[in-house]
UniProtKB/TrEMBL annotation:
The gene coding this protein: plsX
Family: Belongs to the PlsX family.
Name of the protein: Phosphate acyltransferase
Location in or out of the cell: Cytoplasm
Pathway annotation from the record: Lipid metabolism; phospholipid metabolism
Taxonomic classification: Bacteria, Thermotogati, Thermotogota, Thermotogae, Thermotogales
Length: 333
């Protein structure tokens, strides 16, 4: 039986929405045993199904907690959830808590895969024909060129996990020419071309991401997070403009009624809850970061993502991919 820990006190709507999503998932997935990690009052007036276990701790982390503090507060719901993975009690952990805190716990409690310099937050981004993977989306603000290469390798494995057979890779930059960007981007360009050959499509710009020009977008966390948040804001703007114009007159309302199936499909595609959560790729276990404002639907899907990660042995696949890179590097190729 697959085993997943869920941090009940992580997220803006904890614990109510987290508990609701976890219980709904447990009901629909009897082949998964959930470890609900929370404080004592989280479990009052709720009835746990047979495939749920209660793990009571004394502390939890606020959403504005500093990563260093997250490591010191060893009896928090987040720390103890990650410790369950480290101790092989569970196969995966899900939390909607502070991103930096979860990265710290994932890195220093769960531990990194051998050879990984920094784990990456790899996020699925909607495109016109499906989705692409953005790595990194905010976990690592400043990195070295070789770390960007590792992000690409981990992003490719994640893309394969998501069903893309031969992922194309692009480097996020301020222009498509090879000499664009700082020395970091220029050196990363060279490394990516050497590693991926024809699968590396060179530099891409921000407006290429949603058009699906590549399947894996490589960036440091600073630029990746700005790109992701800008796209989220643009999606909200589109939906709000549509809503506002539909309400203006009867003809618009009738047109909207006829276009309802299209609008519903658009809304679903742009709804981050349906992606649920994303992996901290590069840690020695399955760690899923759910969005901070996750409701029960998002938590349900985050747990689904964790289950899928266990089923396809994502950690082992990343480990093998990174091992190949180090072997190639040591041989001088």
């Amino acid at each position: 039986m697959k085993k997943i820990a869920i941090d009940l006190m992580g997220g803006d709507f904890a614990p109510a929405k987290i508990v609701a999503g976890a219980l709904a998932f447990a009901k629909d997935n009897p082949d998964v045993e959930l470890y609900l990690v929370g404080i004592e009052k989280n479990f009052k007036e709720i009835s746990l199904p047979s495939n749920c276990r209660k793990v009571v701790v004394e502390d939890y982390l606020p959403m504005d907690v500093k990563p260093t503090e997250a490591i010191r507060r060893k009896n928090s719901t987040m720390y103890q959830s990650c410790k369950l993975v480290r101790d092989n009690v569970v196969d995966a952990v899900v939390s909607a808590g502070n991103t930096g805190a979860l990265l710290a716990c994932a890195t220093f409690v769960v531990g990194r895969i051998k050879g990984i310099e920094r784990p990456t937050l790899a996020v699925p981004i909607p495109t016109k024909d499906g989705f692409c993977i953005l790595a990194d989306a905010g976990a690592n603000i400043d990195v070295k060129p070789f770390t960007l290469l590792q992000f690409a390798i981990m992003g490719v494995e994640y893309a394969k996990f998501m069903g893309i057979k031969n992922p194309k890779v692009g480097l996020l930059n301020v222009g498509t020419e090879e000499n664009k960007g700082t020395k970091k981007e220029q050196e990363a360009f060279r490394l990516l071309r050497e590693k991926f050959g024809e699968s590396f499509k060179g530099n891409i710009e921000g407006n290429d991401i949603n058009m699906g020009k590549v399947d894996v977008v490589v960036a440091d966390g600073f630029h990746g997070n700005i790109a992701m948040k800008t796209m989220e804001g643009s999606a909200k703007l589109i939906i709000e403009i549509l809503k506002s114009n539909i309400k203006k007159n009867v003809i618009s309302a009738l047109g909207a009624l006829l276009m309802k199936p299209v609008f519903n499909k658009l809304k679903e595609k742009l709804d981050p809850r349906k992606y649920g959560g994303t992996f901290f790729v590069g840690v020695n276990g399955i760690v899923v970061k759910a969005h901070g404002n996750s409701d029960e639907v998002a938590i349900y899907h985050a747990l689904k993502v964790a289950k899928q990660g266990i089923e396809i042995s994502l950690t082992s696949k990343i480990e093998e991919a990174i091992k190949d890179v180090w072997n190639s590097r040591d041989s001088g190729n």
